[in-house]
């Protein structure tokens, strides 16, 4: 089977950074197939990158997965984590944690300290090219994971807090998992959670934001409502998304990543709409 390396970064596409990572991999291991997961993660948005990788990993072949996303200026020790049939490389800032869980949990974790594997000289601001790319290429073509550096206790790894989803009586509580470039708000709540409280496509959903609330249709796609109107639908990951047809739902609803929300059926008695 052709070895696979995937790349997820916040480098953007306006310069040659992504191409440089590709080049280092191909020069080291020309037989490797490279899959670009995403390079348009907002700069340093670890949570957004973690969500993208975790939701993509079930659809990726076994391989080595690089997630080079870190806040500018942050201290970022490099780690390799083996989980299931996958090896994840990235800064130890939590960006890998949700994907590792999605892959079945970590079996072993190691620090990337073997400088013989790095591209020289190592730029302090471009570990994607000089550390992760060459190490990924070597691992994908058979280098034992033990060669990258010493094993570290898994409890020492930085992990993002697991997103919440709780069915309580006739409501589902959750949080904003991520917001994309269009202002679509992905929640930690699944369509299955909504089904438990009686909300299904074609019905009405009430979104509670603290003391505020808004009622909106629950449909199959955002295009099911006229331009400018709010709608909820289930995305390809099975999660509930709040959106506006040709608009920015995150801005209108004032919902940043991590914000707490409650959802209930529109058939429940509610006060007059407040948004």
UniProtKB/TrEMBL annotation:
<comment type="similarity">
    <text>Belongs to the SAM hydrolase / SAM-dependent halogenase family.</text>
</comment>
<feature type="domain" description="S-adenosyl-l-methionine hydroxide adenosyltransferase C-terminal">
    <location>
        <begin position="174"/>
        <end position="262"/>
    </location>
</feature>
<feature type="domain" description="S-adenosyl-l-methionine hydroxide adenosyltransferase N-terminal">
    <location>
        <begin position="5"/>
        <end position="149"/>
    </location>
</feature>
<dbReference type="Pfam" id="PF20257">
    <property type="entry name" value="SAM_HAT_C"/>
</dbReference>
<keyword id="KW-0949">S-adenosyl-L-methionine</keyword>
<dbReference type="InterPro" id="IPR046469">
    <property type="entry name" value="SAM_HAT_N"/>
</dbReference>
<protein>
    <recommendedName>
        <fullName>SAM-dependent chlorinase/fluorinase</fullName>
    </recommendedName>
</protein>
<dbReference type="InterPro" id="IPR023227">
    <property type="entry name" value="SAM_OH_AdoTrfase_C_sf"/>
</dbReference>
<dbReference type="Pfam" id="PF01887">
    <property type="entry name" value="SAM_HAT_N"/>
</dbReference>
<dbReference type="InterPro" id="IPR002747">
    <property type="entry name" value="SAM_OH_AdoTrfase"/>
</dbReference>
<dbReference type="InterPro" id="IPR023228">
    <property type="entry name" value="SAM_OH_AdoTrfase_N_sf"/>
</dbReference>
<dbReference type="InterPro" id="IPR046470">
    <property type="entry name" value="SAM_HAT_C"/>
</dbReference>
């Amino acid at each position: 089977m052709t070895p696979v390396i995937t790349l997820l970064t916040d480098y953007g596409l306006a310069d040659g950074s992504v191409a440089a990572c590709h080049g280092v991999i191909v020069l080291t291991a020309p037989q490797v197939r490279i899959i670009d997961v995403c390079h348009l993660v907002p700069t340093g948005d670890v949570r957004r990158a973690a969500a993208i990788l975790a939701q993509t990993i079930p659809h990726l072949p076994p391989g080595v997965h690089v997630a080079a996303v870190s806040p500018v200026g942050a201290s970022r020790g490099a780690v390799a984590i083996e989980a299931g049939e996958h090896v994840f490389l990235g800064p130890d800032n939590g960006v890998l944690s949700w994907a590792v869980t999605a892959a079945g949990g970590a079996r072993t974790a190691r620090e990337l300290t073997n400088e013989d594997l790095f591209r020289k000289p190592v730029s302090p601001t471009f570990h994607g090219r000089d550390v992760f790319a060459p190490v990924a290429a070597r691992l994908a073509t058979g280098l034992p994971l033990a060669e990258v550096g010493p094993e570290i206790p898994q409890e020492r790894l930085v992990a993002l807090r697991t997103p919440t989803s709780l069915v309580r009586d006739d409501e589902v509580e959750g949080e904003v998992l991520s917001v994309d470039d269009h202002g679509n708000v992905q929640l930690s709540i699944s369509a299955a959670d909504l089904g438990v409280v009686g909300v299904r496509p074609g019905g009405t959903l009430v979104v509670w934001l603290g003391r505020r609330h808004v009622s909106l249709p629950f449909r199959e796609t955002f295009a099911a409502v006229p331009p400018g109107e709010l709608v909820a639908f289930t995305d390809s990951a099975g999660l509930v998304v709040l959106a506006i047809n040709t608009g920015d739902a995150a801005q209108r609803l004032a919902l940043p990543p991590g914000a707490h929300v409650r959802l209930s059926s529109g058939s429940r008695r509610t006060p007059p709409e407040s948004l």
